[in-house]
Structure formats: structure tokens, C-alpha cells
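Course assignment 3, question 2. Fill in each field.
Student: A.L.
Task: Predict the tertiary structure for the chain below.
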Amino acid sequence: MSEGMFRTVSRLRSGYDPDEVDEFFDHARSVYEAGQPGALTGKDVRSVAFDMVRGGYVTSAVDAALDRLEAAFVARSRAEVLAERGQQAWMEMLADQARTLYGRLTRPDGERFAPPAGRQQGYDADDVDDLCERLVAYFDKGVPLTAQDIRSATFGRRRGKHAYAEAPVDAFFARAVEVLLGAE
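Answer field:
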């Protein structure tokens, strides 16, 4: 990664702060090349946030690069576990994570996550439950599903008993992405 890797939007529109993005990708490259185990993880990459500024970098291009970087760090974690403890340990680790996710998936539709607080909006429960059913099909029947399928999912907005609070849904699907990336 180097400065100028991403295109900028017009000065009238907002995009990610180029200085923050360049700094993060330079840091990630140096950590990756140095092979420092655990110094930066896929979860760290996924949770990074950049300020929005006028004339900044195109967000979709940066987000796509972050997806690839997350996958690279997950692959590195896998290689580290395989080298240290072997294939069986990696599979057991993935299986434990999958079992944790599956416990949430076996709850009835409409009850998998807490509702939003008060009168706040949340994710449409039906939309979230549809993606959960795809995960169940993946775990139970091996129906193909990729991390990108989860990342690109969108949910409608609702209030009340037909909505889920956003934070627990986001955290759950972030963990699902980790499992799918580990299995890919």
C-alpha cells in the first residue's frame, strides 16, 4: 500500500480521510511484512474507522481493500495456529466458534437478538432472520455461503417488536465472517 493508492471523491463530496487511511495501511503493511504474530488481527482490521472529510478517498474502494486485508490477517492467524498446534487445533477452534454462533441461530425467528431500546430504530427482524437461515443452511447442509455474502447483506429498518438492536446483530455477523473466512 502506498499513498495515492485510492482515488478521491470530488471536493464537494465526503470520503475517508486520506491521511488516516494511508497511515493505517502503512502500519498494516509493516506489521504483516514483519510477521509479528497477534500485532494486528482480522478483527482489528474489521473494526477500524476513518473520519469522513470533503474530497477524501472513495469509501467503497477502501472498504474493499479492508475486506482483502482482513482475509489476509485471518489467513495468517490460521497459518500461525497450524504451525503451532496443527490442523486439528484450527478445526476445533473454528468448530467452537461455529457452535457458539449456532446456539444463537437455533432460537426462534424474532427472538434471536434483543429489540432496540425504547423507540429507537433497529434492523428489520425478518431480514436478519433470513440471513440467519442462510447460516443455518451453511452449518447444517453445507449450502455455500461466503464471508462476502454476509458483508454485503443489507437490512431494512424498523421499530418495535419486529426489530433487532443493531449492535448485537453487527457483532454476531462479524463473528460469522471470522468463521467463514477461517473455513475458506
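Instructor remarks: The beta strands are 14-16, 52-54, 122-124, 157-158, 163-164. The chain has seven helices and five strands.
Grade: pending
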